[in-house]
Design a protein that fits this description.
CATH architecture: Alpha/alpha barrel
Pfam family, one: Mito_carr
GO molecular function: dicarboxylic acid transmembrane transporter activity
Subcellular location: Mitochondrion inner membrane
Distance between the termini: 6 Å
Helix content: over 70%
Number of helices: 10
Strand content: under 5%
Radius of gyration: 21 Å
Protein name: Similar to Probable mitochondrial 2-oxodicarboxylate carrier acc. no. Q9P3T7
Number of strands: 0
Bound molecules: 2-acetamido-2-deoxy-beta-D-glucopyranose
Shape: globular
Largest sheet: none
Family: Belongs to the mitochondrial carrier (TC 2.A.29) family.
Order of helices and strands: HHHHHHHHHH
Number of domains: 1
């Protein structure tokens, strides 16, 4: 029997970190998903939405979805992000590791500097896009209001997209997703070190965790400020059914960002910002608590 102090400080194998992270991620999705539905609805709505179809703000959107479509619509499409969680997590870990090694070798340094962690994070974010795009596409299609009579669930979305728009259409939105991930990671890794160095030095484990939490929240908020315009455009691109011979309104990311700003004003690039940021705080808390619980449980099971 290991002494309590030994157990507390024992190294945690990758398997446990991975499974703990996945369980934490899924718990976060289960609780926070309605915010994601509301975010997508607000991002998809342009100046043409009128009357009962118009969402004036986040709360109005919640109210109208529940009233007009029923409570369960706040969970429509949730299986896509849940299925995505494990492959996304695996890619994130592997990509961070491999790109980190690659850049350290390429630049001939053996320690991770801040510039390198920004570069690594941004490249890993771009790599992750290849895994998440099809899941994100299915999710957006199911979150759209008009999807009720059109799609009968996740498998049906995939079947219909492949049949009507071709198999490559499953990757619609890849470019905007890359922009979204690159800017988020650059913002996040770009300021997390700075914030940590500005916070008071901590000696205790609790104090260190608090510093991590503060730096992580600031990093997340900065990432969200940078990436929301790309998220808006991504939602619009992924919601569009491609019809042969019709030029889609939103195609490449940067012209689409300019188009949204021109037609709906600069503020429209920040549609869905409030539900996005609101998710960060409690979402991060859930991740941390569930992850710690899983790891502690694993520790308690060790001989
Ligand atoms: C999403 O796309 C579909 C198909 O192109 C369209 O019918 C629907 O109106 C769009 N949703 C919004 C909110 O614009
Ligand atoms: C992209 O969208 C813009 C604005 O709707 C349009 O003018 C342009 O022709 C489109 N480009 C392509 C390659 O489809």
């Amino acid at each position: 029997m290991a002494a309590a102090a030994d157990k507390k400080n024992m190294p945690i194998p990758f398997k446990v970190t991975f499974v703990g992270g996945a369980i934490a991620g899924i718990s976060e999705i289960l609780t926070m998903y309605p915010l994601d539905v509301v975010k997508t609805r607000i991002q998809l709505q342009d100046n043409n939405a009128k009357g009962a179809d118009r969402y004036n703000n986040m709360f109005d959107c919640f109210k109208k979805i529940v009233k007009q479509e029923g409570f369960s619509r706040l969970y429509r499409g949730i299986s896509a992000p849940i299925l995505m969680e494990a492959p996304k997590r695996a890619t994130k870990f592997a990509a961070n590791d491999e790109w980190g090694k690659f850049y350290r070798k390429a630049f001939g340094v053996d320690k991770q500097t801040q510039a390198l962690s920004v570069l690594t994070g941004a490249t890993a974010g771009a790599t992750e896009s290849f895994v998440v795009v099809p899941f994100e596409l299915v999710k957006i299609r199911l979150q759209d209001k008009a999807s009720a009579g059109k799609y009968n669930g996740m498998i049906d979305v995939v079947k219909k997209i492949v049949a009507q728009e071709g198999p490559l259409a499953m990757y619609n939105g890849l470019e905007s997703t890359m922009w979204r991930h690159i800017t988020w990671n650059a913002g996040y890794f770009g300021c997390i070190h700075q914030v940590k160095s500005m916070l008071p030095k901590q000696e205790t484990k609790k104090g260190l965790m608090l510093n991590d939490l503060i730096a992580g929240s600031v990093g997340g908020a900065v990432g969200t400020i940078l990436n929301t315009p790309f998220d808006v455009v991504k939602s619009r691109i992924q919601n569009t059914t491609r019809v042969p011979g019709v030029v889609p309104k939103y195609n490449w990311t940067l012209p689409s960002v300019a188009l949204v700003a021109k037609e709906e004003g600069f503020a429209a690039l920040y549609k869905g910002f409030v539900p996005k940021v609101l998710r960060l705080g409690p979402g991060g808390g859930i991740l941390l608590v569930v992850f710690t619980t899983v790891v502690d449980y694993w520790k308690s099971m060790q001989p």
